[in-house]
Design brief:
The chain is mostly helical and 140 residues long. Helix content is 46%, strand content 10%.
C-alpha cells in the first residue's frame, strides 16, 4: 500500500499532530530542543514556540527543560510527554488498520505517478494550475 493517512487530534486547548509528535520524538532522541529543531529542519524559535504551546495545552508539562551552565542544560520528555507520544502512535496505527481497505481501494483508483512537484493540480494555487484551451485555469 502506498497511501497513508495523518492523524491530527483537535481540542479547544490545542492540537497535536505529526509535526508536534515528531518534535517530541526528536527532543527525546537528542536531549535538546535546538538539536531536535535542527534535525527536523526547523528554527529554534519555532521549536520553542511549539514546546511552550504543548506544555500549556496539557494539564502537566510534556517537556522538561534545564538551564545551561557547566553541565550544558538540555530537554527531555516528561512521563506525560512519553504517554502522549505512545498514545498518538497507537491511535495512528489503529486508524491506519481501520482505513486500510479504503486506502487500498484509493491506491487502485489513483494514477501511479504524480507530477514532478508532487502535487495534484487541485492541490496547487490557481496561478500554478495548467490552463485549458481557452487560456483559463480549470475551476477547482
Amino acid at each position: 500500500m502506498t497511501s497513508d493517512l495523518r492523524v491530527r487530534f483537535l481540542h479547544p486547548s490545542g492540537a497535536i499532530g505529526p509535526g508536534k509528535i515528531a518534535l517530541l520524538e526528536a527532543i527525546d532522541r537528542t536531549g535538546s530542543i535546538s538539536a531536535a529543531a535542527r534535525s527536523l529542519g526547523m528554527t529554534f524559535r519555532r521549536a520553542w514556540f511549539l514546546v511552550e504551546t504543548m506544555n500549556t495545552a496539557f494539564r502537566e508539562p510534556v517537556i522538561r527543560t534545564s538551564v545551561g551552565g557547566r553541565e550544558g542544560g538540555g530537554a527531555g520528555l516528561t512521563a506525560m510527554g512519553q504517554e502522549v507520544v505512545a498514545r498518538y502512535r497507537l491511535m495512528q496505527e489503529e486508524a491506519r488498520k481501520a482505513a486500510e481497505p479504503h486506502l487500498r481501494w484509493l491506491d487502485e483508483m489513483l494514477k501511479e505517478e504524480r507530477p514532478e512537484d508532487g502535487r495534484a493540480d487541485d492541490e496547487k494555487p490557481e496561478d500554478e494550475r495548467p490552463e485549458d484551451e481557452s487560456g483559463t485555469p480549470p475551476a477547482g
